Amino acid sequence: MRTEVLGVGFDAVTMAEAVERGMTMLETAAPDYVVTPNPEMVMVCREDPEAARAVAGASLVLPDGIGVVYGAKILGRPLPERVPGADFSLRLMERMAARGGSVFLLGAKPGVAELAGEKLAARFPGLRIAGTNDGYFQDDGPVIQKINDAAPDFLLVCLGVPKQEKWMLANRDKLKVRLMAGLGGSLDVYAGVVERAPESWQRLNLEWLYRLKKEPWRLGRMMRLPKFLLYVTGERLRGK
Ligand code: UDP
Known about the structure:
By secondary structure, the protein is of the alpha/beta class. The chain has one domain (9-233). 50% of the residues lie in helices and 14% in strands. Strands 4-3-8-7-5-6 form a six-stranded parallel beta sheet, sandwiched between helices. Strands 1-2 form a two-stranded antiparallel ribbon. It is globular, with a radius of gyration of 17 Å. Residues 107-109, 135-136, 158-161, 163, 184-185, 187-188 line the site of uridine-5'-diphosphate.
């Protein structure tokens, strides 16, 4: 049973448990997919049924933002901890490297996935970069063919929300991968194109504020966060 926050069900797992579940999924040929919604995505799901279906169909739904963890707490159904997608997949790749696993990096602007691949290969010796493709393609067909020819264990899908979630749901049956995850701007972070908040900001759960400082145009999108907290409080007061 999933922990429901404003209509989106989350798996109540710690980071360590999520990584274990990911490792188990890598052992079976069926293409499972993982999603990591933040409050913004929860609000998108309320307005976009196709996005909600894509999230609900995932094998693992992880709470990316601290807002989701707070929301669950306010609703009286606490989630153990925040499990950011970018960290989840780094830990998974670290484990995969030890057994010579392979990844395909899909998404971001041209050149970013290749750069991310070089950095990941250097960081995790043993990890095989099976292939890369930018995220600005028109036809799915040739990209799916390229991925299937590379036959990676793990496919990182970084096309932004909710495009990546819908893409995984629509194409899972055509893809020869064992596991995939929708990871937003993670390739930009791995490539070093976008820096993550310093650890001190992360420890204070202020990663969102740091991001806003660096990318102020996100304010419009981030205004979904207060709305999210308002809705959560409303549900709590109505005793849901
Ligand atoms: N992106 C992409 N194709 C698109 C739209 C976006 O590959 O059609 C990439 C974009 O370059 C960026 C990532 O998707 O690397 C989205 O990053 P963002 O930080 O906005 O993540 P989100 O908040 O959407 O998870």
